[in-house]
Design goal:
The structure holds two protein chains of two kinds. Chain A has three domains: 45 residues, Uridine Diphospho-n-acetylenolpyruvylglucosamine Reductase, domain 2 (2-Layer Sandwich), CATH 3.30.43; 119 residues, Uridine Diphospho-n-acetylenolpyruvylglucosamine Reductase, domain 3 (2-Layer Sandwich), CATH 3.30.465; 114 residues, CO dehydrogenase flavoprotein, C-terminal domain (Enolase-like, domain 1), CATH 3.30.390.50. Chain A contains 13 helices and 14 strands. In chain A, the strands form four sheets. Chain A has a five-stranded antiparallel sheet. Chain A has a four-stranded antiparallel sheet with strand order 11-12-13-14. In chain A, strands 1-3-2 form a three-stranded parallel sheet, with no helix packed on it. In chain A, strand 2, helix 2 and strand 3 form a beta-alpha-beta unit. Chain A starts with a strand and ends in a 6-residue tail after the last helix. By secondary structure, chain B is an alpha+beta fold. Helices cover 34% and strands 13% of the residues of chain B. Chain B has a five-stranded mixed sheet, sandwiched between helices. Chain B is elongated. Classes of the chains: A alpha+beta, B alpha+beta. Chains A and B meet through helix 2 and helix 7 of A and strand 4 of B.
Chain lengths: 290, 158
């Protein structure tokens, strides 16, 4: 067995030319499998010491402001005040991941590349139309998260390619992530939901986690809520129950050891109602008028 | 068999020789470096009993591939007290408050709370609860552990 610890992205990409190399980021999934004997890697490429992947920056693109998160930015870094101000729902999701120990190790790129149906950041990234930046032998390509994830633990990543960054739009308006599990910490989501209000375009985005093979955008529910919200503060009420029902219909849950499909559908319905009520309340506050 | 590598643990350099490179840091600490303070509970990051501080960050040693920690500064529970019997404030508070029963979770909790108090000398009860949310205790009960955390914070602020 060999372990390679490159100190630059170029070295990492060169090492990845070998198809037997397995990529190790924070280790919170990878090492569980190694310790249990379910994974016996012959060649490991550690991303621990690559400065380009460990940093984030904000920028201005044609579609507006964004944050570019290097692949090995940790959950702890996501929930720190500076990033939490720019990407509040992502910070909320990061705070629900595991424990301080797990959040210090686990990375955004690992969450995306592992593509677990229960990945906590995935509904937020899907709702924000985040873009996955890949680099590989054929150069660089960018894929929307919902195209990058092709199924449970399945992605469009090609041999030799590495997830190098996630590009996330910075929006104005209410953002919220909610998750259902048996306790607040150390929980794999039974169901989760991200609701994003974009006051600039008067649109709503809603994505669901743990109720399908990957994050699901509840597009019908999104347009319904956007057309029902009181953007001009005229005092119109919003029927959050209808929004909840439409979100529930968008879910494609299964029964497993963490919950039944029926419970999961019910859970996202309730999460949708509660987050929509918060969005309504936030629009009613004068400081959020846009 | 495989190439040797070096780890820096509690300020001392250790050679790791003839080891499978797939070993976790927890396994290497306990079985190869003679540092059994970090406990092997779940081997999947759930119990926190192997908590160590790596380059200033609290992590589960079981989730770190030891061979990738070659450039890191690792502190284990053994490194919190330079001399045997010379306890830090958290350890003293655990004794005083009776926050130890079987003792299996204690080293991980001591490391996690030492890390918390280093960053936040006056944590609220909720901050303490969140800081130890990844450390499972199945016998002492958390009441005395929370009391110990506050007692240690009070000592530190003197």
């Amino acid at each position: 067995m060999t372990v390679v610890i490159p100190t630059s992205l170029d070295q990492a990409l060169a090492a990845l030319a070998d198809p037997d190399v397995q990529v190790l980021a924070g280790g919170t999934d990878f090492m569980v499998e190694v310790n249990a004997g379910h994974r016996r890697p012959e060649k490991v490429l550690s991303l621990r010491r690559i400065p380009e992947l460990r940093t984030w920056r904000s920028g201005q693109g044609p579609a507006g402001p964004y944050v570019r998160l290097g692949a090995t930015v940790t959950y702890t870094e996501l929930l720190a005040p500076e990033l939490a101000r720019l990407l509040p729902a992502l910070a909320q999701a990061a705070r629900t991941v595991g424990s301080p120990q797990i959040r210090n190790a686990g990375t955004i790129g690992g969450n995306v590349a592992t593509a677990s149906p229960a990945g906590d950041t995935l509904p937020v990234l899907a709702a924000l139309d985040a873009v996955v930046e890949l680099q590989g032998p054929a150069g660089e390509r960018h894929l929307p998260l919902t195209e990058f994830i092709t199924g449970p633990k399945r992605t469009a990543r090609q041999p030799g390619e590495l997830v190098v960054a996630i590009r996330v739009p910075v929006l104005t308006g209410h953002q919220e992530f909610r998750k259902v599990g048996v306790r607040n910490a150390m929980v794999i989501a039974v169901a989760s939901l991200a609701l994003i209000v974009d006051t600039a375009t008067r649109t709503v985005r809603c994505a669901l986690g743990s109720v399908g093979p990957g994050p699901i955008r509840a597009t019908e529910a999104e347009s319904w809520l956007a057309s029902s919200l009181d953007w001009s503060h005229s005092g119109t009420a919003t029927d959050v129950a209808t929004f909840g029902r439409l979100v529930g219909q968008a879910a494609r849950p299964i029964d497993d050891h963490r919950g039944t499909a029926a419970y999961r559908r019910h859970a996202v319905t309730i999460l949708a109602q509660r987050t929509a009520a918060q969005a309504v309340a936030s629009l009613a506050r004068p400081e959020s008028a846009a | 068999m495989t190439s040797p590598y070096q780890l820096t643990v509690n300020g001392a350099q250790h050679d790791v020789v003839d080891a499978w490179l797939g070993e976790s840091l927890l396994y290497v600490l306990r079985e190869r470096l003679g540092l059994p303070g970090s406990k092997a509970g779940c081997d999947q990051g759930e119990c926190g009993s192997c908590s160590v501080i790596i380059d200033g960050h609290l992590e589960c040693a079981c989730l770190v591939l030891a061979a990738t920690a070659v450039d890191a500064d690792i502190t284990t529970v053994e490194g919190l007290q330079p001399d045997r019997g010379d306890f830090n404030a958290v350890q003293e508070a655990f004794l005083a408050e009776g926050a130890v029963q079987c003792g299996f979770c204690t080293p991980g909790l001591v490391v996690a709370l030492t890390d918390l108090l280093d960053r936040n000398p006056h944590p609220s009860d909720l901050e303490v609860r969140e800081a130890i949310s990844g450390n499972l205790c199945r016998c002492t009960g958390y009441g005395r552990i929370l009391a110990a955390a506050q007692a240690a914070a009070a000592v530190d602020s003197r």
